[in-house]
Design brief:
Elements (H helix, E strand, L loop, with lengths): L2 E4 L3 E7 L24 E7 L1 H11 L5 E3 L1 E2 L4 H9 L8 E2 L6 E7 L5 E6 L11 H8 L4 E4 L4 H14 L3 E3 L10 H8 L4 E5 H11 L3 H5 L4 E5 L5 E4 L6 E3 L13 H15 L3 H16 L11 H12 L1 H11 L1
Parallel strand pairs: 1-4, 1-9, 2-7, 5-6, 9-10, 10-11, 11-12
Antiparallel strand pairs: 2-3, 7-8, 12-13, 13-14
Helix pairs in contact: 1-8, 5-6, 8-9, 9-10, 10-11
Length: 324
Amino acid sequence: MRIAVTGSIATDHLMTFPGRFADQLVADQLHTVSLSFLVDNLDVRRGGVAANICFGMGQLGTEPVLVGAAGFDFDEYRAWLDRHGVDTASVRISETLHTARFVCTTDSDHNQIGSFYTGAMSEARQIELKTVADRVGGLDLVLIGADDPEAMMRHTEECRTRGIPFAADFSQQIARMGGDEIRNLMEGATYLFSNEYEKGLIESKTGWSDAEILSRVGTRVTTLGSRGVRIERAGQDPIEVGCPEEERKVEPTGVGDAFRAGFLSGLSWGVSLERAAQIGCMLATLVIETLGTQEYTLRRAHFMERFTKAYGEEAASEVKSRLA
């Protein structure tokens, strides 16, 4: 199964604040907020939702196709992704702009405040999926992740026109989208990804109920934080999968991307939705135990030991044969 992942390619500048954001907010002065947080450290990491997802899929050996736009400073990042099993030949390189950048501060409660500079990402709208499909011999699924909004619209429409199954995954871009845009990006999606908060935003902005959304998409996948994930399809009982036990909790950035990487890898292997979600939750657990979105190492024996403990021998035997 050939899967392309479209979306942002960025560097992450991650900082930690030793206090709580909530303690710095004055309820009757929120209209004039002026805050500066003295942070303990700065880590510069590779990131971007599409690159993060592809990195995870590459770790699992599923050879994803990365589709997005990066800057003239992308050479080192490209080499890193290539070494980790990602097909980067369809990345568009800007001649004038830097690769996008995410700047994020996390407090002691794991709340986050972030800003995103688009940079070269604005050129993603110039990428044609047909060119990508022709190069790799066809596409079985395209995940349309957070990206230049016009690029997301164009990729979605091209998938519909060309009959390519697609997954809608708005993530960070949902905050700037209106109801019409969300409805357009979601209609006819084979999969719809969101976290629990985004699920509520989607319903609020579109005016569609949960049942109406399920009638318009094939499968709805909602991540629930530490509670795992819920998978819903119209007319069927929901599937709920819990998370493996964490060895430690370091930093939450990239956890959702890792889940998607594992889930999509499971789809490419042809396992059940429940099994794909279990793979996603296991990979997400590795990320929350690591500082940075692409700094974890997937050691197969360790992965399978923890997967077996979380989900049992039967599930593990099915996954092990593919992971090997």
